[in-house]
Amino acid sequence: MPRTDLSTLDRIRDQEHLEDLLSEPTDGVVETVRRLEGDVIVLGVGGKMGPSLSRMLKRAADEAGVRKRVIGVSRFSSPDLAKQLQSWGVETTAADLLDPDQVEKLPRVPNVVYMAGMKFGTTSQSARTWAMNAVLPAYVCRKFRGAKIVAFSTGNVYPLAPIAGGGAVETDEPQPMGEYAQSCLGRERVFEHFSRTDGTPVALIRLNYAVEMRYGVLMDLARRVLASETIDLAMGNFNCIWQADANAMSIQAFDHVSSPPRVLNVTGPETLSVRRSCERLAEWMGMQVAFSGAEAPTALLSNAQLATRLFGYPRATIGQLIDWTADWVKRGGQSLGKPTHFEARDGKF
């Protein structure tokens, strides 16, 4: 099926257009879903990436001509998301995943995407953070023993890395800073434990950072530039990847699950400069930009060469992402209202 030619796309018109792009499957995704036996359940579908990833799964199944249920699980505190998912052909089940009895009542399927977790507010809700990030995985592993599990983690489990080093690789020793990152390493260790003891095949997706027009590092920077805020350069470098590309790579990770778990860094191939990114955003929006401080010699950076080798380069380039974001923010496009706090160097979110 023909794919959108992103190289000719100079702007993203509106939310409907954005949602369509974020959920467009690649040929690789279609082939993975074609080979995948059985239905798929997406736990924590109500997060930033869950809706578009679930829809991509469903679109891929339809395109591949295979009958496959895609089931999204969330508390669904707002009924609007459930209705939207259902309109895309994604089934919905409301459940509090911190309740083991409710986890046990979920449909038993052979393929699981685990997206549940807590980041923002961790400083003031440490106990809930640990429960969500390190206890909940045990409930899931017991319920879905032997299923293929693609579990989202974060590059925050790595220490700050030298800018010139290209970022942390999957074999580097985790050194999480702060309770959020520590609890995320706890999540990984729980999945690893059950993978080893039960033989459950798992892929751990260390993601940083997925971006789209309504959320992400680039939107954070664009909004600050438009508001004429001074940009702090202490966290002077970062990685990011178009959310559609992160969705596609994560779905294709079903082909690479293993026991013990396979770890995959998912991000863009470049080490990006906050200064240069803001200057390009400012130029596009016709603004001036001011900076304070200087770039530290380290940043939270991941090396995605392994994922790139397995899945290919992201379809969207960083230049396109910056230009689309500048246009979206300048036009007053919608925001999810969730700053990333990517600039935090102390691990506190």
Describe the structure in your own words.
By secondary structure, this protein is an alpha/beta fold. The protein has twelve helices and 15 strands. The protein has a domain at 11-211 and 242-268 and 303-311: Rossmann fold (3-Layer(aba) Sandwich). Helix content is 39%, strand content 15%. It has a seven-stranded parallel beta sheet, sandwiched between helices. Strand 1 (40-43), helix 3 and strand 2 (70-74) form a beta-alpha-beta unit. Helix 3 (50-64) crosses helix 9 and helix 8 crosses helix 10 (274-285). The protein is globular, with a radius of gyration of 19 Å.
SSE blueprint:
Blueprint: H1 15-22, H2 27-35, E1 40-43, H3 50-64, E2 70-74, H4 79-87, E3 91-94, H5 100-104, E4 111-114, H6 126-143, E5 148-154, E6 161-162, H7 178-198, E7 202-207, E8 210-211, H8 217-226, E9 231-232, E10 237-238, E11 241-242, H9 243-252, E12 262-266, E13 272-273, H10 274-285, E14 291-292, E15 298-299, H11 305-311, H12 318-330
Parallel strand pairs: 1-2, 1-4, 2-3, 4-5, 5-7, 7-12, 8-11, 9-14
Antiparallel strand pairs: 6-15, 10-13
Helix pairs in contact: 2-3, 2-9, 3-9, 6-7, 8-10, 8-12, 10-12
| Main pleated sheet | 7 strands, parallel
Global outline = globular
CATH superfamily of the domain at 11-211 and 242-268 and 303-311: NAD(P)-binding Rossmann-like Domain
Helix- and strand-based class? alpha/beta
- What average pLDDT do the residues reach? 96
Helical content, roughly?
25-40%
